[in-house]
Specification:
Layout (H helix, E strand, L loop, with lengths): L2 H16 L2 E7 L5 E10 L5 E6 L3 H8 L2 E7 L5 E12 L3 H9 L2 H4 L3 H4 L7 E17 L4 E8 L2
Antiparallel strand pairs: 1-2, 1-4, 2-3, 3-6, 4-5, 5-6, 6-7
Length: 153
């Protein structure tokens, strides 16, 4: 991997780790696309997890069709990550995952922090097996969009 690509991969990883909200798109039983904002976590290995309640449309959709499209973006900087993949339901680490999310100070300022403390909410954690990931940022020197496909490399 050349140095420039290594830098881009690091920027993409850092971008995913620093952000906390994404839009996840699923497909309904009737083939209709449905999207929702979710809390997620990622790490240096591009492992990507998100949480949802089992009472949601996305949970029902994912039981029948494991394909997802995800976008992580920001308002302040012209950057996005686009992901396509398949999900698997995570079992066994749900409480640890929720506690980690609840402990994130940056979520407290948003609606989504208290969302995790809701009584009676039956949460599910999904891990995304990323099949395709693209990082986009605007080069502020040239004012050109730069797309970098990272997965598959």
């Amino acid at each position: 991997m050349d140095e420039k690509l290594e830098d881009v991969v690091k920027k993409a990883k850092d971008f995913l780790i620093q952000n906390k909200l994404c839009v996840i798109s699923t497909v309904s039983l009737t083939g209709k696309p449905e999207s929702a904002v979710c809390i997620y976590m990622s790490n240096e290995n591009f492992d990507f997890y998100f949480v949802t309640r089992q009472q949601t449309r996305k949970f029902e959709n994912l039981k029948n069709n494991k394909n997802v499209a995800i976008v992580v973006g920001t308002v302040a900087a012209p950057e996005t990550i686009q992901i396509e993949g398949e999900v698997e339901l995570v079992s066994g680490k749900k409480n640890e995952f929720i506690e980690t999310l609840v402990g994130r100070a940056d979520l407290e300022e948003l609606y989504y922090g208290p969302f995790l403390l809701m009584k009676g909410a039956n949460f599910a954690i999904f891990k995304v097996k990323i099949k395709w990931l693209r990082y986009l940022h605007l080069n502020l020197k040239t004012f050109k969009e730069e797309y970098h496909q990272i997965i598959p490399s």
